[in-house]
TrEMBL record, chain A:
PROSITE patterns: ABC_TRANSPORTER_1, ABC_TRANSPORTER_2. It holds the Pfam family ABC_tran. It comes from Frondihabitans sucicola. Residues 300-311 have a biased composition (Basic residues). This is ABC transporter ATP-binding protein. Residues 19-249 form the ABC transporter domain. Keywords: ATP-binding, Nucleotide-binding, Transport.
From TrEMBL, chain B:
The chain crosses the membrane at residues 37-58, 99-119, 131-152, 158-182, 224-245, 265-288. It comes from the Bacteria. This is ABC transporter permease. Belongs to the binding-protein-dependent transport system permease family. It is a multi-pass membrane protein. Keywords: Cell inner membrane, Cell membrane, Membrane, Transmembrane, Transmembrane helix, Transport. Pfam families: BPD_transp_1. Its main location: membrane. It comes from Frondihabitans sucicola. Residues 96-283 form the ABC transmembrane type-1 domain.
Amino acid sequence: MTSTSPAPTLERLGEGATVELRGVVKSYAGSRALDRLSLTLAPGEFVALLGPSGCGKTTALRSLAGLESIDAGSILIDGEDVVATPVNKRDIGMVFQQYSLFPHLTVLQNVEFGLQMRRVDSASRRRRAVEALEMVGLDHLAGRFAHQLSGGQQQRVALARALVTRPRVLLLDEPLSALDAKVRVSLREEIRRIQTELGITTLFVTHDQEEALAVADRVAVMRAGEIEQIGSPEELYLTPASAFVADFVGVSNRMRGELQAGTITVRGARLASIDPTLPDGPVLAYVRPEDIAFVPPPTPRRRTSTGRSRRPASSARSGGPRSGSTTTPSCRCSTASSSSSCSATPSRCD
Amino acid sequence: MSAVPLTGVAVEPTGEPANPAPRNRRAPRVGAEPSRITRLVILIVVGLVFVVPLAAMFEFTLRSAGTTALGFGHYASIFHPDAAAGVDYSPLFQGLRNSLVICLITVALMLLILLPTMLFVELRYPRFRRVLEFVCILPITIPSIVLVVGFVPVYQRVAAIFGSQPWTLAFAVGIIVLPYAYRPIATNISAFDLVTLSEAARSLGGSWPVVVWRVILPNMRRGVVSAVFLTVAVVLGEYTIASFLSQNTFQTALLLISQTDSYVATIFALAALVFAGILLVIIGRFGAIRPGGRERRVRRARPARPTRPVRSRSAS
C-alpha cells in the first residue's frame, strides 16, 4: 500500500480484498462466454481484463458483480464465496460503460445514494459524499444534474458514487470508452491515482490495449472465455505466451522464418526465439518494430535509421547484417514468439 | 357529439413522452424549425379547429326552445330539475359516478398489472418485449363492437361471481385501455437506460423494491402520468361496452338524456371535452418538467449559488 499523500479524500480502505474466480463457467444458449475462467486479484491490485469484443471479459466482470449468474465455479471475495449473494449485498462499486447517473437526482444525491442504502445518517452521508466529490475534483458541481455535465464529468461522478461506500472491490466496465481520446487519457490517470490512494482491489475491463497497459498492475488477455495470458504489461509485451497475445498487445511484424536450435532465421537475419520448447521447422516470427535496426549497407549508399526504442537498451541489437541492404532488417528479435509457442495454435508456415 | 374520438385519438401523440432530440438542439437547422410567423399561423388554424366547435356547443347550451334570448337556464336546471315536468337527471349523475369508479379501478389495474409487467419484461425477459407489445396494441385493432360480442358470455360469468355491478366494466375497459396505457409507458422506458440505471442502483446496495421506487419510477413519471390520464379519458369516453353490457355509465346516460334534453346533454359533453382538454394540458406540463425543471426550483430556493446557463432549455 503506497499512499503518496495523506489525502484529504476518502478514508483508506485498509488492505483491500482478495478476489478469486475459480473455474467460472457461463454459457449463453450453447456457446460458452466463460470457459473455466480462473483469476486471482491480490489485495489492492489493479488488474485489467483485455480482449477483443465477445471474448467474455465483460461477462467475467458482471459475474463478479453478481449481475450475471454463473453456471459453475466459485467466486470468492476475501475467501467468502459470493456466488449466492445478490448484487446489492456483494459490497462492490461499479462504474459502467454507459452513463449511469440517476437523471432525477443531483450529483450530490447520486453520490449519497449508496450511503442511503447503507442507512448512513444524513450528516455523515453528506460529508462523505462531498469528500468523494472532492476526490474526483467535482465538489463544485454538487448541485448539478447529470444532463448538465460532460461525459467525463459524469463518469467521474460515477466513480465517486462507486467509491463513496468504500466497497471491497471496484469494478470498471469500459468506463472510458464513451469519452473522447483526451479525456480518456486524463481520466484513466485519475482512476489509477485514486485507486492507488485508496488501495482498493480493482478489476478493469477494456478492449483498448494501450489503456490496459498504461494503468494496470497486471493485465489478463482474454480470448474465447479463457485467459490466454496474465502478467505485468512488460511481461505481456516482451514475452507473449501465444501468437494471439503477441498480436493483440502491441504491434508486430509477422515474418516467415526457419527455426533451428533456438534461432530463427528470417530473411537471412538470425533471431533468438523466446520459446525454447518449439520443435525445429518453419515458423512465423513476431518481431517488435523497435527491435528492428537499419544499418548501413555494405554498398556506398548510406541511409540509416533506427527504430523507435521504447525499451531499455538491454535488448541489445546484435548480429551483424548478413545480407545488408537497407530494406532487409537486420535484427535480433527478443520477442520472436513463433506462433506455435503455446501448446495451442501452431501457425507453422506451410 | 361524443367526447370519445377527440380524447382517444387526438391525445396520443401528445402523450408520447420522450422526444429529446429536438430539445437538445439549439443550433438552427435548415428546415428543422418553422419560423415564428409560421408557428403562429399553425397555432391559430389548429386552435380554431378546436375552439369553434366548442364555442358552438357552448352557444347551443345557452339557447332555449322558442326564444332567441341566450341564458344559463339549462345549467341551472341541471341542479334544480323541474320535477313537475318529469325531468330527472339522476341517471346522469349516477352514470358519472359509475364512470369515475370504473376509472379508478382501471387505473389501479393498469398501475398494478401493466406497469410492473412491462418493467419485469424489460429487466428480465427483454425477448418477450415484442410479444407484450403485440398483446397490448392488439385491442386497438379490434372494433369495440366485436370485443363486446366476445365479452357478453364472459360477463355472464363475471356477473355470476361479482354480481352485475357497474364497476365490473373496469375489466373490459382495462383491455380497451391497454394500447393507450402501453404506448406512453413503453416510450418512457426506451427514453432512458432502464437496465443500466437499475444495475447501478443494485450495485450501490439497493434492493429491488428500493430500485423500483427510488430510481425507476421517478424516471417514469411522465409516461405513467400520461398513461393514467389517457386511461381516464378513454374510460370517460367509453360507450359501446357499457351500452351492450347494459350498464349505466356517463356516456350511456348522456345518450339517454340527449334524446329528451339535447341542451343538457350538450352541457355534459362540453364538460367532458373541457375536462379532457385540461388533462392534456396537465400531461404537457408533466412532459415539460425535466430534471432541469426541478433544478429551477432548487435555484430559486438558493439564489446565491452561481449559475451557468443550462444546456437545454428550449423545452420551456
